[in-house]
Amino acid sequence: MLKSIKSALKRILTPPVQSFFPLSDAASQKSLSLLYQTTRMPNSQFRIQDAGFKVYSQTDEDGILLYLLSVTGFRTRSCVEICAGDGQECNTANLIINHGFHGLLIDGKQECVDRGRLFYSTHPATNVFPPTFIQAWITRSNINQIIESNGFSGIVDVLSLDLDGVDYWIWEAINVITPRIVVLEYQDILGPDRSLTVPYSDDFSGYSVSVTAGMPDFAGASLRAFVKLAQRKGYRLVATNMLGYNAFFIHQDIQESVVPSVQIEQCFTHPKVIEGMKTRFPKVRELPWEEV
């Protein structure tokens, strides 16, 4: 069975699924989705990571989301992305463009929002009904009002969160939507054991203290902190992206037999992550992380 999946992937995906080159053909993606829906892969031989590929996401998140939605079901075809940039490289763009999702995209920079609105209003797949794209500086006191006032509430298929800042506190605060799948960026340099987040502040900026290769070192929260929060909110960890900094959670209503959980320790094996724990974390070790 696994052999047939791999053969199909080779036929459908050009270049192969492991590469980061675009796979923009919606028909090919839908064929792949149907394949996932009709073929159950043995858990012992398949990692959800192996389904990853890039179309509009930063790395391989597009493929992972397609797999998770294919095996758990496309229920509402709606999504919310917080800090979407200009929407052209983000976790929900592929779902909106190639899979008919209606999205709420939020970013703090007006110039990004303007570019995003132009992109979706002129794209042939979305020009009739583009996603809602708004400018807002997100805080834990305004996030629910922003989501609900723009027409989103109840069950959505996907929530994506990547503030490079107070991500932990924003996810904790969200209660007007119930995402079936949550994808968020965690601070991999904190390693698997620490349960830490940056302290909350309405005007927190992850780029104001220490930045390595364009990435903030004092920002976000550890994967263990997010896993503990996820459990309180009714979610479990099922995957990370290949490079080990974006985590995927699914709602506890989705059975383990459909999508198995993964252990935190399994998510810290990539050389990039190991290097970050060794070289980046010491720069911010003494900063005021908050244990949660």
Characterization of this structure:
- The chain has 292 residues and is an alpha/beta fold.
- Among the domains are: 1-73, no CATH class; 172-292, no CATH class.
- The chain is 32% helix and 18% strand.
- The chain has helices at 2-12, 26-38, 61-72, 93-98, 110-122, 143-149, 167-173, 223-233, 271-279, 281-284; strands at 78-82, 102-107, 132-135, 154-161, 177-185, 196-197, 211-212, 215-216, 235-240, 246-251, 290-291.
- The strands form three sheets. Strands 3-2-1-4-5-10-9 form a seven-stranded mixed sheet, with helices on both faces. Strands 6-11 form a two-stranded antiparallel sheet.
For the record, give the distance between the C-alpha atoms at the N and C termini, rounded to a whole number. Answer: 43 Å
**Overall pLDDT, averaged?**
90
Helix content: 25-40%
Beta content comes to 15-25%
Tally of individual helices: 10
Shape: globular
Order of helices and strands: HHHEHEHEHEHEEEEHEEHHE
Low-confidence stretches: 11-22
**What is the total tally of β strands?**
11
Distinctive features:
11 strands; seven-stranded mixed sheet; alpha/beta; 292 residues; globular; two-stranded antiparallel ribbon
Concise structural overview:
This protein has 292 residues and is of the alpha/beta class. The protein is 32% helix and 18% strand.
Annotate the secondary structure layout.
Elements: H1 2-12, H2 26-38, H3 61-72, E1 78-82, H4 93-98, E2 102-107, H5 110-122, E3 132-135, H6 143-149, E4 154-161, H7 167-173, E5 177-185, E6 196-197, E7 211-212, E8 215-216, H8 223-233, E9 235-240, E10 246-251, H9 271-279, H10 281-284, E11 290-291
Helix pairs in contact: 1-2, 2-3
